[in-house]
Specification:
Elements (H helix, E strand, L loop, with lengths): L4 E6 L4 H12 L5 E7 L5 H8 L4 E3 L7 H12 L6 E4 L8 H6 L4 E5 L11 H8 L3 E8 L9 E8 L6 H28 L10
Parallel strand pairs: 1-2, 1-4, 2-3, 4-5
Antiparallel strand pairs: 5-6, 6-7
Helix pairs in contact: 1-6
The structure holds glycinamide ribonucleotide.
The site of glycinamide ribonucleotide (GAR) has 16 residues, from helix 1, strand 5 and helix 6.
């Protein structure tokens, strides 16, 4: 049995973090959240982590150079020995320095069907393009912006009259049911000694 420690990195509301926490509490996901780190000190997600009695760490990124920040982040995470690092609305790009310490073990969730609409405001981009189907993606993180091997995706229909808010809300509901499944998938692959990217690449 491998350790199933999850480090969660977030920058804001933290609803995906809460959904992962709930999946663990329900017994759907066999894992433990070893720490929650936010680069935004007053992030609502960090306050939630404290409420839940988890290790909640504020590591402000404002004014800190990227490599220096990633070095601090690595130092912060090390004592908690995470098996996986799960980005849950963590609005920063990680450097190779960070990723090399957790090869194939950093996950991200994105509110679009990648490789369509990477970056900020993915739901707005989807509406502006006029796609009829969008959705969400959980993928392994590489040095790009929302690139890296795809683990799971869920499609969401774009409805006539959808606003950015209404589409985002429907996608978010699916995100909450998708992320913990992708985490379970990667933990199972690690347990079996398989490549976390899966058999098809
Ligand atoms: C989520 O919709 C997530 O997919 C998105 O930020 C939101 C965070 O919400 N992430 C990205 O756009 C990454 N490119 P949350 O803080 O409530 O989990």
């Amino acid at each position: 049995m491998i350790p199933r420690n999850l480090a969660i990195l977030l920058s804001g509301r933290g609803s995906n973090f809460v959904a992962i926490h709930e999946a663990i509490r329900r017994g759907d996901l066999e894992a433990r959240i070893c720490c929650v780190v936010s680069n935004v000190p007053d992030a609502a997600g960090l306050a939630k982590a404290r409420e839940f009695g988890l290790n909640a760490v504020s590591l402000p990124s404002k004014g800190v150079e990227r490599i220096e920040y990633d070095r601090l982040l690595l130092e912060t995470l090390r004592p908690y020995s995470p098996s996986l690092v799960c980005l849950a609305g963590f609005m920063r790009i990680l450097s190779p320095l960070f990723l090399e310490e957790y090869p194939g073990r950093v996950l991200n969730i994105h509110p679009a069907l990648l490789p369509s609409f990477p970056g900020l405001h993915a739901q707005r981009q989807a509406l502006q393009y006029g796609v009829k189907i969008s959705g969400c993606t959980v993928h392994l993180v590489d040095e790009g912006v929302d690139t890296g091997p795809i683990l799971l995706q869920r499609a969401v229909q774009v409805l006539d009259g959808d606003t950015e808010e209404s589409l985002s809300a429907r996608i978010l509901k699916e995100e909450h049911d998708l992320y913990w499944r992708a985490i379970a998938l990667v933990l199972d692959r690690l347990e079996k000694g398989e490549d976390t990217r899966g058999p098809r690449r």
